[in-house]
Write a structure and sequence with these properties.
The longest helix has 16 residues. This protein has 112 residues and is of the alpha+beta class. Helices cover 28% and strands 41% of the residues. The mean pLDDT is 90. It is globular.
């Protein structure tokens, strides 16, 4: 288990990353997502690139090799997984941007 902030926990599950997001640190209840590592890595790379673009206009939309990323506001990111032909699958996630920011910190910490 690893933690990025008081409100976000990450758990490596061998090929999947479980994300637990608490609205406040005192909460026992949380929202949870499981992402393949390849999609998590794509999100991290995308977020680092987006932070360099100071005047980005919404909605933002980008396709990577493994997922399609859409950002309609500065608070949430919608992700759809892609098949090997680049078509969207049935799997998708809507994550708070704070989760993606903490995901990068967590991945960096576990590599060290």
């Amino acid at each position: 288990m690893g933690e990025g902030s008081l409100n976000v926990e990450f758990r490596d599950q061998g090929g999947l990353i479980e994300i637990r997001y608490f609205d406040s640190p005192e909460d026992e209840l949380y929202r949870s997502w499981k992402l393949p590592v390849s999609i998590a890595d794509s999100l991290i790379a995308w977020r680092q690139k987006m932070k360099k673009q100071k005047n980005a206009l919404f909605p933002l939309k980008e396709k990577t090799r493994v997922c399609e990323i859409t950002m309609n506001t500065d608070k949430f990111v919608d992700i759809k997984s892609l098949d090997c032909m680049g078509r969207t699958n049935m799997t998708g996630w809507s994550l708070p941007i704070v989760v993606i920011d903490n995901l990068r910190k967590w991945k960096t910490a576990i590599k060290e």
